[in-house]
Amino acid sequence: LPLTIRGRPAAEARSKAVEWMRRVGLAGFESYYPHQLSGGMRKRVSLATTLIYGPAVLLMDEPFSALDVQTRNMMENELLDLWAETRNTVLFVTHDLEEAIALSDEVIVLTAGPGRIKASYSIPITRPRNVVEIRFREEFTRLYEQIWKDLRDEVQQSYARSTRL
Length: 165
Description:
- The protein is of the alpha+beta class.
- The chain folds into two domains: 1-93, P-loop containing nucleotide triphosphate hydrolases (Rossmann fold, 3-Layer(aba) Sandwich), CATH 3.40.50; 94-165, no CATH class.
- Helix content is 50%, strand content 13%.
- A two-stranded parallel sheet has the order 1-2.
């Protein structure tokens, strides 16, 4: 519907919708209503709805947090493939350090509050990447340990603040 509102022919809009439903692993669910889908499936439909427009800048705030591990890995790899095709800018917010390293060219660690930049790390891991396989690379482990040193302090401060009476 949003593509037809933007003036795209109905057949083209339907074709794009079917393609994006397939890309997010929901082929065959195109005619389902939101209440008929699980939370994770609705999350994937939301992602497809965003990506169908081909935005120049993609802002993603914990987009895969509601997904099971296997689906999350599939969607992360799909995002990497999409980026390889378009090279568009993606600002990806996550609390998962492994996800940040696997998907990013740069990881920025924020302070616990107020949110200021504490550190920035370049991720020199070559592409193409597979989010599962990358976690077994020595360079991934080295980066994880390095970034975790900065992140751990912020996590501990945040936790300490939240447990005070």
